[in-house]
Design goal:
It is a single chain. With 474 residues, the chain is α/β, with parallel strands linked by helices. The protein has 2 domains: 336 residues, Aminopeptidase; 111 residues, Alpha-Beta Plaits, CATH 3.30.70. The chain is 44% helix and 17% strand. The protein contains 15 helices and 12 strands. A hairpin with an 8-residue loop joins β1 and β2. α2 packs across α14. The protein is globular. The N terminus is likely disordered.
Amino acid sequence: MKTIYSLLIITLLGTSVYAQKNVDKILKELDSKTTYYGNIAQTIWDYAEMGYKEVKSAALLQKTLKDQGFKITTGVAGIPTAFIAEYGSEGPVIAILGEYDALPGLSQQAVAEKKSAGADAGHACGHHLFGTASAAAAISVKEWLEKTKTKGRIRFYGCPAEEGGSGKVYMTREGLFKDVDVALHWHPSSVNAANPGAALANKSAKFRFYGVSAHAVGAPEKGRSALDAVESMNYMVNMMREHIPQEARIHYVITDGGKAPNVVPNYAEVYYYARHNNRNVVIDIFDRMVNAAKGAALGTDTTMEYEIIGGTHELLPNHILQEIMYKNLVATGGYIYDEKELQFANEITKSLGLKELNTSYSEAVVPYKENSRAYGSTDVGDVSFTVPTVGMGAATWVPGTPAHSWQAVAAGGTSIGTKGMMVAAKTLSKTAIDLFSNTEIIAKAKKEFETRRGADFKYIPLIGDRKPALNYRD
């Protein structure tokens, strides 16, 4: 009996060693392609295409995946730049999310000093790295599946317009994730971290007011100012801030306030965001904002309409998956700046008003922390309420760099961004391989997912039934 048991242990151990050798070989091959994937990311950085207009960026990623044997489905969810790339025909489905949209009005120069914009858009959130690393991981996992003859399907989801366009919400609403077992994602950052994700739910809309034009001096009594309506709404919403949960956030910008001071504006528009870590609170705040807009129109004798622009759920964490992701990030580790990178990083640090560069954030991994505070929002939130989802951040920016800054654009266009991107690619690869190797993890993650989401949960997108605003950047 002991002999049989010993043989079983040896067999399992041998299988484990064999599998690990394959993992090590795959990751070594991935590492050897750093320059190749860095060039792809740099090309997308150069394209700098805004949401729903990422035609060249999406095409490049599609070609990269197709050349590696992935089946490509384009134009999903009614979005020309959204696509799915899949390898495998049976077994568990692991999704890896990828983004590739840029932000408007940011300098596109990889230099350590602020320059005038000089470009329509810039990759200030590192999505050129996001999409490339995710594609690299998908290819790496596909190669492992082939070598080990493991049953499994690896999918890359090409997700456009995360920046204000809620691209993944439309993809979720379309049911594109309904047969996925686990979804993996990552995001560029100034640190290496894999804590349970936290993100705020949000809902955004443009409120448009219509009045009557008139000469502001010659016939003011005949005018009805749409700008007065916008300012009235803003005043009421600003007073409302005292009477909402303190964790909530409201942002707005007047996008059109008239053209000349001596003309009563017959049209004005204000763009609002509402955020909180619970979507139901966001819905309540948004409904109160709508009432403020209606009151503003009534009080100024104007008319009002509003258009939902975006809306996302908060991020639903999964601790079972997160511990696996963290373990793999620690095993991958960070990276060391070379002399040129160190000089660049020190200059960026000075531009941020920091006393000195703290390289520990790029060289190591932030210790695991279960309760992370949410500050931003992401359309990954909707995916996380549909399928067990896990993510991480990699140090693609100089420590201390905020997202959506010229410093983020600059670092993302250098080898610093590429090094951080490869940390993410390797960690995603390891995590997917762990899941394919041990499907019990998937089962446990699904159980936690159902418990956290709640038995009575019904997915209702905050964007309602609106179609993708494919021209919303115009």
